From TrEMBL:
Subcellular location: Cell membrane
Keyword line: Cell membrane, Lipid biosynthesis, Lipid metabolism, Magnesium, Membrane, Nucleotidyltransferase, Phospholipid biosynthesis, Phospholipid metabolism, Transferase, Transmembrane, Transmembrane helix
Enzyme class at the top of the EC tree: transferase
Known function: Catalyzes the formation of CDP-2,3-bis-(O-geranylgeranyl)-sn-glycerol (CDP-archaeol) from 2,3-bis-(O-geranylgeranyl)-sn-glycerol 1-phosphate (DGGGP) and CTP. This reaction is the third ether-bond-formation step in the biosynthesis of archaeal membrane lipids.
Annotated GO CC locations: plasma membrane
Identification of the protein by name: CDP-archaeol synthase
Organism of this sequence: Haloplanus litoreus
Database matches in NCBIfam families: PRK04032.1
EC number(s) reported in the record: 2.7.7.67
Top-rank lineage group of the source organism: Archaea
Topology of this chain in the membrane: Multi-pass membrane protein
Gene Ontology terms for molecular function: CDP-2,3-bis-(O-geranylgeranyl)-sn-glycerol synthase activity
Taxonomic lineage from the root: Archaea, Methanobacteriati, Methanobacteriota, Stenosarchaea group, Halobacteria
Single Gene Ontology BP annotation: glycerophospholipid biosynthetic process
Xref: InterPro entries: CarS (IPR032690), CarS_archaea (IPR002726)
């Protein structure tokens, strides 16, 4: 029961979790804001690049399609109600996660925080909000059917924990400049 709930919630969010990590690995190159500033501060900063955003989105969508392929095998082993991703849902989750993170950087620069500065709460949930919003816009019935209140509650608790451990791991491996 609980295992099924947690498995379903995390499975549904995986295409939104992976893009940020893929962007860390693929990042670099031209920043999205092209160096532009607003009131003397960068619009987004050098941490938001075209390459990282494109790679993150592609990896997230590809992961959703791969999860659809392995789903029957997983369901046969673990009796859990795992969602099947429509292509529109996959794009909503993956691109939405990237846009949520970009939106947070826009806010951080307006608050005067430099690239890489930690803003607890915002850093851990920006991509969840972005993913859910774009998924609702692109695939409304899929999103409402998939994200039950119970699954949303699991996501709100589990995501910050997963985000903190993944980023600390990436930092220890030398893949990321800061542990958040
Ligand atoms: N990255 C990227 N494009 C994105 C998101 C991330 O290229 N859309 C890469 C960048 O190399 C970035 C790294 O992933 O430095 C880590 O991402 P994140 O922690 O989100 O960025 P920060 O560098 O911390 O910048 P910010 O303060 O704006 O969040
Ligand atoms: Mg960061
Ligand atoms: K971030």
């Amino acid at each position: 029961m609980v295992v099924s709930l947690v498995a379903g919630a995390l499975w549904a969010m995986l295409p939104a979790y992976v893009p940020n990590n893929a962007a860390v690995l693929a990042g670099g190159g031209r920043p999205i804001d092209g160096g532009r500033t607003l009131d003397g501060r960068r619009l987004l900063g050098d941490g938001k690049t075209w390459r990282g955003t494109a790679a993150g989105t592609l990896v997230g969508v590809a992961l959703a399609m791969a999860l659809n392929v392995v789903r029957p095998t997983v369901v046969a082993t673990l009796d859990a109600g795992l969602p099947v991703f429509s292509f529109r849902a996959a794009v909503g989750l993956a691109l939405g996660a990237m846009l949520g993170d970009i939106g947070a950087s826009f806010l951080k620069r307006r608050l005067g925080r430099k690239r890489g500065a930690a803003v607890p709460g915002l850093d851990q949930l920006d991509f969840v909000v972005g993913a859910l919003v774009l998924a609702v816009l692109l695939a409304p019935s899929w999103t409402f059917a998939t994200f039950s209140p119970a699954r949303l509650a699991v996501i709100l608790v589990a995501t910050p924990l997963l985000h903190v451990t993944t980023n600390a791991g990436a930092y220890l491996l030398g893949l990321k400049a800061e542990p958040w």
